[in-house]
Amino acid sequence: MSSLSIQATDGTGRFDTLLVRPKSEPAGCVVLIQEIFGVNAAMRALSEWVADMGFIALCPDLFWRQEPNVDLDPDAGQAQWERAFALMNGFDQAKGLDDLAATIAAARALPGSNGKVGTMGFCLGGRMAWRTAVGTDAECHVSYYGVGIEGMLEDAPQIKHPLLMHIAEKDKFVPPEAQAAILAGVKGHPQVTAHVYPGVDHAFARMGGHAWDARAATIANGRTAEFLVRHLG
Question: Gene3D superfamilies this protein is in (predicted)?
């Protein structure tokens, strides 16, 4: 596990990106997109999981313009949540998308990369995975319980590469009407596959978290693994 410094395309500075390499290369790359808690223990564990599957994992610090290297614990009390929501509310998503595009470009050029890149995001990152599917040239995208996607469905025709969506039926941040709108909005789309996981809440795939559900997470992660292998080699 190491860190890669990437130049922001708007010239305002550089941001740190967690980098975890697999045992063998060349390999496809996966850009992991953080929750609202920064590049924390959960994102480090996910990066190691992706590398264990045989991919180069990169996890950029998207909150760097507000506070570099945010590392919050969602199970450590209300103060951590309040700080996380403040950072989310101050996050410029357009610039965040630019930073993700820069990370995708850096991933393609990494020694050991086979040139193929996917994105995979959780919560806020799940929303940004939708945005990378719309606005970048990455080969594939995975969105875990992305928030606010129902407000961006008009962009669905711009999705040109495969997008896999994992939706939690009991997600308190994505209520039933939002889920219905998302499912209707992507129905029949040749590049989008959406799965709903019954009886589970937001963040069901965060191992050890309060909403962790082993069955749903195992099914979702298995689908993700097959998807990444299919599209990234």
Answer: alpha/beta hydrolase
